[in-house]
Structures are given as C-alpha cells and as structure tokens.
Amino acid sequence: MPFALQPDRERDLQAILRRYPTKMAACIPVLHLCQDQNGWVSEEVIQFVAERLELPPAHVKGVVTFYTLFNQKPVGKHQVWICRTLPCALRGAGELLAHCERRLGVHAGETTKDGKITLRTAECLASCGTAPMMQVDKEYFENLSFDQADAILDKLQR
Amino acid sequence: MLSRCDHMTKLYGAPNGWTLAAYEKEGGYQAAKKALAMSREALVDEAKKANIRGRGGAGFPMGVKWSFMKPHPTKPAYLVVNADEGEPGTHKDRTLMELNPHACVEGCIIAAYGIGAHTAYIYVRDELHLSKARLWGAIEEAKKKGYLGKSPFGIDYPIDVVVHTGAGAYICGEETSLLNSLEGRRGEPRLKPPFPAQAGAFGCPTTVNNLETIAVVPTMVLMGGEAFSKMSAIHHLKDGGCRLFGVNGHVKKPGVHELAVGVTLRELIYDIGGGVLGDRALLAVIPGGSSTPVLRADEVVSAPDEKDPLHAWHGKSVLDVPLGVDTFRGLGTMLGTCCATVLAEGTCPVAAMHNLMQFYRHESCGQCTPCREGSAWLFRTVEKILDGGATMADLDMLHDIANGIMGNTICAFGEGTAMPALGFLKKFRKDFEAYVRGERTRGDARLALTGS
Question: Which of residues 70-89 of A touch B (CB under 8 A)?
Fold first, then answer.
C-alpha cells in the first residue's frame, strides 16, 4: 500500500517546504516526519518522499542510507540509545550497557522479544558532562545509576 | 587566570530562563537593536576587534570570516549556524540552546545583518530534541514581538531564522558536509575552494559559524569589540572575550562554565572540576574534543626561543598554559572546543584510543579512501593489540596508517582521526608495548574507575 502522511503531519510537510529555497532541502526533515509516523523508512516511504519532493528515489535512498537515525528496517516500539564514546565510557557507560543487555536479554542492536525495546549504542550525544546517559526515544536521561536505568526500562516494558 | 563571568549563562538554572520574558529582564535584544542601527561595516569592524575565535574547534577569527562576505549581484546570502554538536567530549552548545535559546536567536539577528543575510539556518543534530524545541519556541516569541520578520525593531531588514535538523552523522559538523546536509543531500564534505563565502548553502555566499560563536555576539555588541576582547588574559594573542569551558571524564564535578579566555587546564580540572575522581593522580587530558591530541599530565613546555609565544611558559607544566587557540597549537595539540576530557591514573590509554578509533571508524563518511580504510585499519589494529595478537611491527604500522590519512582527504576529519591516534601512540608507547609483550591483557583495558 502506498504511504501517505496523516493530516497533521501533512500540514507539517507544507510548513517545512516553505522554509527552503529548494524542495530537496526538505528531504531530511520530511524523512523524519515519515519515520515518526511509520517507525521506519520503508520502500513506500522512499517513493512517497521522492514523489513529493520531486527527487529521484535513488537520491532519497542515498540520503536514508547515509544517516544512522533512519531505520532501514522495522524496530522496537521504543529506542534506547546508550552513549558508548570515551567521556561516557570513562564514567561507566560500558558497564551500564552490559547491565542493560543482561537485563533485557538482548545485545546492542537487537530488539526485545516483546518488540518493545530496541537497544543500541550511540556515538557521543553531547552529554559528556552528565555521563553516563541514555536517550529513550526523544528524551535524555543523564547521570544514570543502574537503579535509575532499571526504573526507566521497567516503565518502557510495562 | 581564572575569571568567572555569566554573560551567556546568567539564565542557566533560572525559572523559565529560556523564555523571552526572562531574557528581556536581563537586557535581552538590546544588542540586536543597537547592532541594526549601526552600519554593516561598523558592526563587522567591532566583530574584528572582539577577537572572537570560532568556538567550533578551528579557532578562525569570526570577524575576519564575516568580512569575507561580499554582496552578490543576484544571489542571496545565508547565515548557517553549526549546532551539530557531536565531537566526543563536547557538551557546551547544547546548554546554550536548552537554557539560553534567545541569545542564540539574537546572535543570529546580529550576525545575519553583519554578513548581509536575510535567512539564518541553525543546523541542530536531530538527537537534541529539547534544544530544537527551545530554539523554535524562542523564534516564535521573537517573531511575535517583531524582533524577527519583515522589519526587526522597525528597521527595513527582513530576517528569518529556521531550525534545520540532521539525522545522526558526526561528519555533518564539518561545514561543507553540513551545507550538503542542509540542501538535502548525503553529508559528504565538499572540496574547497570554493569556500562557503563564495558558494555555500544553495550555491550562495554563506557564513558558517558555530552556535556558541553566535550566542556570544550579543555580549560583544553590548560591550563593544575591544572591551569584550580585553576580558581575556590572552587578548594580546588576538584570542578574546569569554567562552564556555567544559570539563568531563574523571573529575568530581563535570560540567559547563562560562569563563574569561585564558584559564589553564589546571584551573579547569581542579578549581572548576573539583579535582580528579577519588583524588587520584592525573594521567592525561584531551584538551578540547577527541580530535585534539592528548596531553600527558607530566609534560612540560619547551619554548626556549624568546620569540615563541609560549616562551613565557618555557619549562612549566602544560597544565599551566592558558587555554588559547595559538597557545595550544604551540603545544602540538589544539584548543578545539574547550571541553576537556580528564583521564585519571589507572585509565588504560590503549583502551581510550581503541574507544576513539571505534568512533572514527563509525563516523567516517566513506568518501575518501585514506580515511574510510585508514580509520577502519586503525581500529582493527588497536583491537588486535588489546587482544594480544599484535607485534611491535603493528605499532609502526599504526604510525604508517595515520600518516597515510593526514593530508590525503577532502576534509579535516582525516586529521581529526590521525592526530589523536598519533598522540596516544607517541605519548603512551610503553602502554602499547606492554600489550604486545603480553604483560597486559583485555582485563587491564579499563576506562571507568572502580571503587570511587
């Protein structure tokens, strides 16, 4: 089935187009808009974006594959990112990741069996002064202890 | 010299400090009003006198960059603000966007006017959702008040500010890559020339400034360029004003603080950061983001030549040199983003390099072969060293790989990968050799401190 945006997101698309002198410039924001609705960027999403922005599908696909935040396959309901880069690692990010992997029974990059959580590592999220941290969907959780991380994961799995 | 100030950070922690009401109570938007009543030339002149060195890492003088912008007969000009904060160890721009977004917007108004642009794009990395929301909120508030739009402050000079987002790519912090990303393309860096001032966003004359550079502009305008510059202890080195300093890693009080330029690493680590975790000895510091080569705590300055700008610190510890663009270049590293990552005694430098090489391998955009392949080989070779399968020849090979990247790529990401690799290798050679000789194993490759 072809992809289409819900009416409120369609309005957002129109607003995005007004911000730029070219349609191409809307490519990344519009892909975000579609992914917010669809959970991932499917072939149908690529077709939709290509048509609406008058771009070759290959261009859109090239953009999708360049940026790590575009999911090229379905993912869990919630995205949990743990920053693994040096400043966080110095404050125990490696240990936090291992703890979450044990607790969720998945490795980084995998989704829990109930489909609720995809656990991933992130490269520096500009939260070095409040490490270790995790990003859950669109929210940051900083200065985390194992207990706090557990409470967050519990809530997501409920 | 440690000198605290709060020009950009006054509203940090204040209730609703990110709102227009709070910002105006502290004199917000008076700078924009003043600047838009000046001539463009006079404004750029003040900016030059302020000696604002770009806060994104390269340290190019902001006023000089602005002066490169010449009106084009047919094309519009653009201001592009780089808020793609993602250099490991850097956590300052985010605080401005979240806690003082109006300073960012006011800075955009002044800078856009200064370079002859009517549109400013603030490129924020997508992960910073709160930053984006606060910036959009500030833009809406400023529009309603008439500070943005058709005639800001009643002056016939339309200005619009737009927040644009990336999608998770460190390389988009490189200015030409950022421009490609803004145009809706893969974020691969462009060859220079042409420089952005000639052909930047959408093929038009463009100035790309770091977000903090822009956010300090209102302060500079209110104080006047020269007075602003003189806040700095190294004003004489054309490195002026105040800036945000971050400290992270193994310190008791990690965080972001606004200080006059000229503070030393020792002051940043011990006075601001509260000292090393567990009162351990200091092993090393990465002075300003992961691409700036590491400094050992026991290094001393060697500048016997009286003409050397570092001569005043000859024989002293590198920890006592004021943090400045040129002073740190003189130390063989870089000032970078002014956010220091502290490594305590007991941290494994080989593991630290391994962690960073994993980062660079992941973030290389893949356009240039030396960087794409080199970053992967650097990572794999350090991995081999940690796993105990390496020989002394592998250590030499690391040098060869790093040197093979330097100078052979389109953008500075190559150097940004090779320089820290060489830094760790040269300064901690014995630690690398210990793994090769089998005196250490993976279990010794610790980064987090235990028991503190």
Answer: 70, 81, 84-87, 89
Residue A111 lies in a domain: yes
Burial level of A75, CB count in 10 A (0-12/13-18/19+)?
middle
Residues A84 and A50 in one domain: no
Is A71 among the domain residues?
A: no
* Cβ pair B327, B321 in contact under 8 A: yes
Residue A158 confidence (pLDDT): 86
If residue B103 lies in a helix (H) or strand (E), which one and from where to where? helix B101-115
- Does residue A96 belong to the interface with chain B, where contact is any CB pair within 8 Å? no
Tokens of B133: 């929301």
Q: Are residues A44 and A88 in the same domain?
A: no
Pick from A28, A70, A85: which is nearest to B184 by CB?
A28
Domain region containing A17: 7-66
Domains of chain B from N-terminus onward: 20-230 (3.40.50.11540), 235-344 (3.10.20.600), 349-444 (1.20.1440.230)
pLDDT at B103 over 60: yes
A125 at B interface, C-beta within 8 A: yes
C-alpha to C-alpha distance for B352 and A46, rounded to whole angstroms: 39
Q: Is B242 helix (H, G, I), strand (E, B) or coil?
A: strand
Read off the pLDDT of residues B385-394 as tens digits, 9 standing for 90 and up: 999 999 999 9
Domain count, chain A: 2
SS3 for B135-187, per residue? HHHHHHHHHHHCCCECCHHHCCCCEEEEEEECCCCHHHHCHHHHHHHHCCCCC
Nearest to A19 among B162, B358, B359 (CB): B162
Is residue B418 within a helix (H) or strand (E), and if so which, with residue range?
Answer: helix B413-427
**Residue A108's CATH number:** 3.40.30.10
Q: What is the ipTM of this complex?
A: 0.97
Give the model confidence (pLDDT) of B47-68 as tens digits.
Answer: 999 999 999 999 999 999 999 9
Q: Check CB contact under 8 Å for A53 and B167.
A: no
> CB-based contacts of B441: which residues, under 8 Å, 6+ apart?
B388, B435
Residue A72 lies inside a defined structural domain of this protein: no
The end-to-end CA distance of chain B, in Å, is: 30
Same domain, A47 and A101: no
Is any Cβ of chain B less than 8 angstroms from the Cβ of A25?
A: yes
Residue B417 scores a pLDDT above 90: yes
Confidence (pLDDT) at B452:
40
Which residues touch B42 (CB under 8 Å, ≥6 apart)? none
Nearest-CA residue of chain B relative to A61? Answer: B186
Phi, psi of A119 (to 5 degrees): -95, 130
